[in-house]
Design brief:
By secondary structure, this protein is of the alpha+beta class. The chain has two domains: 1-38, no CATH class; 43-78. It is 42% helix and 26% strand. The N and C termini lie far apart (58 Å). Homodimer; the beta-strands of each monomer intercalate to form a hydrophobic core, while the alpha-helices form wings that extend away from the core. One of its GO terms (biological process) is bacterial-type flagellum organization.
Amino acid sequence: MLVLTRKINESINIGNDIEVFIVEVKDDHVKIGIKAPKNIPVYRQEIYKSILEENDRAASTSKDALQNLSDLLAKDIS
């Protein structure tokens, strides 16, 4: 992990297309601004984890539904 020290209005670049700005530091909070192309999604970590969990649930549900359908079709053939 890279750890950097930045002051308000200073920034870092990630690759050629992403810039992260320090907007405000207050008590134990830091506000950051992110400039990135629209095709690059930017999520807070807790939102990203929620999206991954929901995708896993949806994929699991789809597999279960396909298995149930397969079981039903196998019964019809017998």
